[in-house]
Design brief:
This protein is of the alpha/beta class and 612 residues long. It contains 25 helices and twelve strands. The chain has a domain of 180 residues. The protein is globular and about 75 Å long.
């Protein structure tokens, strides 16, 4: 709101005026949703409550949410919030149902609200020994210390009727997840394929003996999930009061825990992956299990046992997130590419599209198209492989979305427009047809634009209104890094020319003024026909550190956080011309609509100028 770091001097009245002005500008630009992308671990903390990992349940997060609400945001795009593994911080390999214990705010357990079941001394020690700097997580440290703290809290806790009701209500997934935890302790690791006993490796068995022998460990797991649930419910009450809605993120992967618990519903001998392309000659062998189509739907079209598991997953996400759900890799629900266990994901080694391979010896029993629908000029990995689909066939491809995802949303009082499909990259003809027929929202990421293609879909001047637009997501380099690279490689001119044409600006000015070019990239979002805008937190703050580098692993991935002194940091980044100057971008977007439109909203523009 100010170019100088005067965070403490901004009055509540000024904040309200700023927020009201920004929201009015968003309304005249026909923007219904303005959401910040920030995964749970990336939330800031109050300094003396920072354990080295963020959570949306903390007071620090609530203060930050009030900050972005005052900036004009009305939504938060979260990452997956399932339980992650000790050896992998990626939220995209987390559990379907169990919440991540790391999102439990330990500080609250030291208060009367939770009967002081955790000692203040233990909490202070964790904070004091936090090895992370201000804007990074300390995953390994937190994973271990969090568990120790929760075990201390468990010893001081007494179960009540609410706990018993929670266990009963969620028994369908909680019991097996807790048993898996007990078995992980029994074998000294949480990777079931290497366990010794074949009986224990079958998640469809009755585990009466293990439940008896590890009763306390199972109750501890249930306790952790109960506390996580309580805190999440309290956070949603706070969000509702502040008119902010969270959007869940449904990963395409199934965790080891979910794979073990539902083995009888998965397809034997096949994994989900990506076909060979320009980036990977052998394709991408993800190793994710694939749900057996015959388990998803019965012959009469009703939900099978596997389908019921998927539906329960989406029901939980919609119930906990009134803003809807972003579905990662939507192609995995419509036209997944699968490969044989022990092989590369290449067609010559048996890989193909699960529902699009009528010529495949093993997969043809799942095929929706007939041989007549095959394009003979391309292979099974090609996005143009399937042609000439009938409406009936498109409906078959859309079955999981219609009967499970959309139906779950409706039952939880959430509209179809709140289902966001991650449709980035190359998508197949069946996916295109399903998205079109169901009028589903996709993503348009402007960093992916090809400046030589005048009609490129990520040049979003003509994108459809239902889509969500952004400069980049959690997998992209921050916009400042992307722009710097354009300048370094002398590739800025074509991008500047396109932006100038679309927004009515001077191309040479954009080339010569990096800040103006950055602002124009944001203004492009607000000037587009799309009704929904998302901004990744690193782009909002103008950070130059990357959150995730796809296809790599390491301590830097998934570790970037909003600094605890975020308000002053934001103002400093504004001074440098790197953070999102929202009033400036909105003025540019309004002017891009033409002189008549700008004249109609001259008073609004003048108000916005006060905050630049």
């Amino acid at each position: 709101m100010a170019h100088k770091c005067q965070c403490k001097s901004v009055t509540e009245e000024q904040k309200k005026e700023f927020q009201k002005t920004v929201q009015k500008a968003l309304k005249v630009l026909n923007k219904k949703n303005f959401a910040m992308i920030i995964h749970g671990a990336s939330f800031p903390s109050i300094k003396d409550q920072d354990v080295g990992f963020g959570t949306y349940n903390s007071q620090g997060a609530k203060d930050f949410i009030e900050f972005i609400y005052n900036m004009g945001f009305n939504g938060i795009q979260l990452g997956p919030d399932g339980k992650t593994k000790a050896v992998d911080a990626s939220p995209y390999v987390g559990t379907m149902f169990s919440n991540n214990p790391l999102f439990i705010d330990l500080y609250k357990l030291t208060t009367e609200e939770f009967d002081e079941i955790l000692s203040k001394e233990t909490f202070k020690k964790i904070v004091k020994n936090n090895p992370a700097d201000n804007n990074r997580t300390a995953y390994e440290y937190v994973y271990n210390e969090h568990n120790k703290a929760l075990r201390e809290a468990f010893k001081n806790w007494k179960p009540d009727k609410k706990f018993k009701k929670f266990v009963e209500k969620n028994a369908v997934w909680l019991e097996k997840d807790a048993v898996y935890e007990a078995l992980s302790i029994k074998y000294g690791n949480d990777y079931w394929p290497v366990w010794n006993d074949e009986y224990d490796k079958n998640g469809c068995n009755d585990f009466s003996e293990i439940k008896q022998n590890f009763a306390k460990e199972i109750e501890f797991y249930q306790f952790v999930q109960y506390i996580a649930y309580q805190q999440k419910q309290n956070t949603q009450k706070f969000l509702k009061k502040n008119k902010i809605k969270t959007i869940a993120d449904c990963q395409v992967a199934f965790s080891d825990r979910d794979h073990w618990a539902n083995q009888c519903h998965f397809l034997s001998g096949y994994y989900l992956g990506c076909p060979p392309d320009l980036f990977s000659a052998d394709g991408q062998a993800w190793g994710f299990p694939v749900m057996d189509p015959h388990s998803i739907f019965n012959p009469d079209g009703s939900l099978g046992e596997g389908g019921k598991v998927l539906k329960a997953r989406f029901e939980k996400m919609f119930e906990e997130n009134p803003g809807g759900v972003r579905i990662d890799h939507i192609i995995g629900l419509i036209d997944p590419y699968v490969y044989k266990q022990g092989c590369l994901p290449k067609p010559e080694q048996g890989a193909s599209r699960l529902y699009s391979s009528p010529e495949h010896n093993e997969l043809k029993k799942f095929a929706i198209p007939s041989l007549e629908n095959l394009n003979p000029n391309v292979g099974p990995e090609n996005e143009k492989r399937i042609i000439g689909l009938s409406n009936k066939q498109i409906k078959q491809y859309a079955a999981i979305l219609e009967k499970i995802v959309i139906q779950s949303a409706i039952e939880k009082g959430i509209g179809k427009e709140s289902i966001i499909c991650e449709d980035l990259g190359t998508i197949t003809n069946p996916v295109v047809q399903v998205m079109k027929q169901l009028e589903l929202s996709g993503l348009r990421v402007t960093e992916f634009i090809d400046p030589d293609d005048k009609e490129h879909p990520y040049r979003i001047k003509t994108t459809e209104q239902q889509h969500w637009v952004m400069v980049g997501s959690h997998d992209n380099p921050p916009i400042t890094c992307w722009v710097n690279e354009l300048y370094e490689k002398n590739e800025i001119h074509k991008h500047a020319a396109n932006l100038a044409e679309d927004l009515g600006l001077n191309a040479q000015e954009l080339v010569e003024n990096k800040h103006k070019f950055l602002t124009a990239k944001f203004a492009e979002l607000f000037a587009s026909p799309a009704e929904n805008v998302q901004v990744f937190f690193a782009d909002f703050f103008g950070m130059n550190e990357r959150y995730n580098m796809p296809g790599t692993s390491g301590s830097q991935n998934w570790s970037l956080r909003v600094p605890n002194n975020y308000e002053c940091y934001y103002n400093k980044q504004l001074e440098k011309g790197e953070a999102l100057n929202l009033p400036e971008a909105l003025i540019m977007a309004i002017n891009a609509k033409g002189s008549g439109f700008a004249a109609e909203h001259k008073q609004l523009i003048n108000k916005l100028k006060k905050f630049m």
